[in-house]
Structure formats: C-alpha cells, structure tokens
Amino acid sequence: MARQLQIRLMTWDVKDTLLRLRRPLGEEYATKARAHGLEVEATTLGQAFRQVYKAQSHSFPNYGLSHGLTSRQWWLDVVLQTFHLAGVRDAQAIAPIANQLYEDFSRPCSWQVLEGAENTLRGCRTRGLKLAVVSNFDRRLEEILVGVGLREHFDFVLTSEATGWPKPDPRIFHEALRLANVEPAVAAHIGDSYRCDYQGARAVGMHSFLVVGPEPLDPTVKDSVPKEHILPSLSHLLPALDCLESSTPGL
C-alpha cells in the first residue's frame, strides 16, 4: 500500500501573500510630497509608479545588484522617476521625499498583516512543518517581519537581494530546500504570483498554491491551475493541504 504524502516544508512569498501596504502606494507618495510643499494627484503617482517599476525591473532586475546598485539606490531612483513621469521635474525637491519614503516603507507600521495569516502560520507550526520565506524583497524584510510579529514563525528568510536570485529562478527554491534539508516532493510554496510563485516552485518539483484576490483570474492562469491549488484566502490553505496529502502518494 502506498504511503500518504506528508509535506515537511512550506515556503512563503510575503508581499500580497502575508503582508500588504496599509495605504495605496500612490497615496503614500502624494502625502509625503504634500508635506514637502508639492501637490501631485495620488492616482497619477500610482499609475506612474507601475510604469516605472516595470521598466526599472526590466532594465535593472533584482535591484540592479549585477549593475553595481544597492537596493536603496534602486528604490530612490524608482521614486525620482515616478515623480518625473507624474510631472515633477525637480530632482532636488524629490530627493528628500524619496529618502523619507524608503525609510517609511522599512517600518512595520506601513504594513498590514493579511487576514488569516497568523492563524494559518500557527496551524502549520502545530502540524510540525518547517516554514521559510522565499521572497523577491530587499534587505528590509527581516526587520519588517520582526516588527509585525511574523518572523518567529519562520526557520529562515531568503530574499532575492540576499541570495542574488529572484523568483522564478530555480536557485532560490533549491537554496530553501537545501537549508531545510528536504526533497522538493515534500515541500510546498505559497504565493500570489502565477509566474514567480506557482510556476517557479513547480518547476523545481515542489507543490504550490496560488493565493488569489477578489478580482477575476486571468483565463490563462485559471485554465493552468487546478482549482484545488487556488486559495481565495489564507484560511483555505490547511484544508487544501489536507486534500493534497490525502490525494498524493508519498515517497
């Protein structure tokens, strides 16, 4: 008789999986600008940020580390370019705003723990699972996790800045497996990105769950992900894990 699968390691994405910003990013940028005497619409800044972030990530992936940048320099440049695209051309006026935003987003008070996160992490611990973070975040993540009270749940934290490998690069997942000393067949990853989280983990042989929001799923994603791997909220994870373990033969 085949043994039942027993997951031993669960790796976690962070942003929009466990944490999210307390306020929309455009509002944060607009508030800081106003404090420095600049009036810029929050919606304009939000739209500009999305364009700049996409372009910056393409030109200088993983915080520009391979181009000699630090993550702080990378983010300050994103802020400068965002305001420039939103119509503010005075870089000197933006510099103190950029520095303030970088510091503010380092603080736990800027972040909100998503509903169900703590109970789900506690439930995973009760089952005896090893837990780890695998995130395309920068060096500020450890401090943020400590500040919001989640760091204690994890055996270790891997960021793309620290490892040099952003998801979906298989090397960051392999490093998590190495540190946990488990095979991919008994590990699962949870995240909100189809490409970086769901596909990235499955490409190395791990199981994976996709956290989705209230908006409709992209049809391509919906057709590619079995419904039992889709989590409408984190409270759905433990039942989904039970289903996975009962339906999959073990090693």
From TrEMBL:
GO cellular component: nucleolus
A Pfam family per the record: Hydrolase
Gene3D superfamilies for this protein: HAD superfamily/HAD-like, Haloacid dehalogenase-like hydrolase
Protein family (similarity comment): Belongs to the HAD-like hydrolase superfamily.
Record NCBIfam families: DREG-2, HAD-SF-IA-v1, HAD-SF-IA-v3
The protein's name in its UniProt record: Haloacid dehalogenase-like hydrolase domain-containing protein 3
Biological source species: Prolemur simus
Name of the encoding gene: HDHD3
